Amino acid sequence: MEEIQIPPYFICPISLEMMKDPVTISTGITYDRENIEKWIFSAKNNTCPVTKQSLITGIELTPNVTLRRFIQSWCTINASHGIERFPTPKPPVSKPQIIKLLKEAKSPKMQMKSLKTLRSIASENDANKRCMESAGAMEFLASIIINNNSNEVFEEEEEGFMSTKDEALSILYQLKLSEQGLKSLIMSGNGEFIESLTRVMQHGSYESRAYAVMLMKDMFEVSTPTLLLSLKQEFFTQVVQVLRDEISQKATKASLQVLVHVCPFGRNRVKAAEAGTIRVLVDFLLDSSEKRVCELMLILLDQLCQSAEGRAELLNHPGGLAIVSKKILRVSKVGSESAIKILHSISKFSSTPSVVQEMLSLGVVAKLCLVLQVDCGSKSKERAREILKFHAKAWSNSPCIPNNLLSSYPF
């Protein structure tokens, strides 16, 4: 095929490819709709990629109809050279359209059909998601989830029976709400929304339970300490159960991230420990090798071991100390730091004679000595040195470690 020179003003500044649906933003620069939507909505950037000007005052995407027609005409003229004409793009949904659909969805007979239409609209592009949010879809979907089950409608689908609540939850997660939207969602129903998601995790389908915990993860990233401190014991029980059931990789990561968000607070650490979090984490660490999952588990274990209840649960597990020690220098720098912090908490606050001897027999002491020899961060080395110093007398004459290994290090 003869090489054709594409006019430079047909090229999207982001992808450097010919635009299919050119739109102009407030700075006057034109981009392909798909690329600029990803830049603004998915990547959460608030500047123009070319001019670096702020878009805070407005992120409206105006279709550049004239340029699109030029591109389509150019494609038609060059069809003999193998250039295909782009079809005219489907226009984004309008706010009145969404309001009409939401009104129809209030009818029990029309609700499931309307929800499916909303799901289809949301799946098309990010502009539709933002339009749905501004038109009040978030509040409507949240009200379906909060309301009791007495008015639920069920419809059979390929994967089984789907309820209106299941459908609403999947759409709500799919919307990828803005920060302000997430904050508003937290307060939906006078704070009842978190309790509603907890009930979904307890009684819902596997898919809905996954959506519930993934939506919680997004919400907790922008929530206030007041909300996080008000969580009930049942919440922790259900999040840990989702983790235990291994519904999906995404649900597992989201469950861990939710717990990491809420466990910097002392009372939440106790609730998480009482929900059986430690045993689940240790069991998973024995089999898991995925880097990010291991990091999250070790970070969470570190948080929980800052409480007496968490340390007791770790020590009660036959593989607790062993797996924490094993993960040092095997996951990542973050993983090693967390594992060493766990051992430091155990040594400082829970070091009974039997625990000290267990650490020796499991090879923990040898691993800590290795930490002092490699590049793993000054804080980690300092904590390792402190642990060795705490119990130097108990470990110095043990046949379980090489002669004079501990004496090689000045404490």
Separation of the first and last Cα atoms: 74 Å
Number of helices: 23
Mean of residue pLDDT? Answer: 89
Return the structural class: mainly alpha
Q: Unreliable stretches, pLDDT < 50, 5 or more residues?
A: 156-160
Taken as a percent bin, the fraction of beta residues is under 5%
| Share in helix | 55-70%
What overall form do the CA principal axes indicate?
globular
Series of secondary-structure elements, N-terminal to C-terminal: EEHEHHHHHEEHHHHHHHHHHHHHHHHH
Read across the widest sheet, the strand sequence of neighbours is 2-1-3
The biggest beta sheet is recorded as:
3 strands, antiparallel
DSSP strand tally: 5
- Alpha carbon gyration radius: 28 Å
Architecture overview:
The chain has 411 residues and is mainly alpha-helical. It is 62% helix and 4% strand. It has a 3-stranded antiparallel β-sheet with strand order 2-1-3. A two-stranded antiparallel ribbon has the order 4-5. A hairpin with a 2-residue loop joins strand 4 and strand 5. Helix 3 (95-105) runs antiparallel to helix 4. It is globular and about 85 Å long. The termini are far apart.
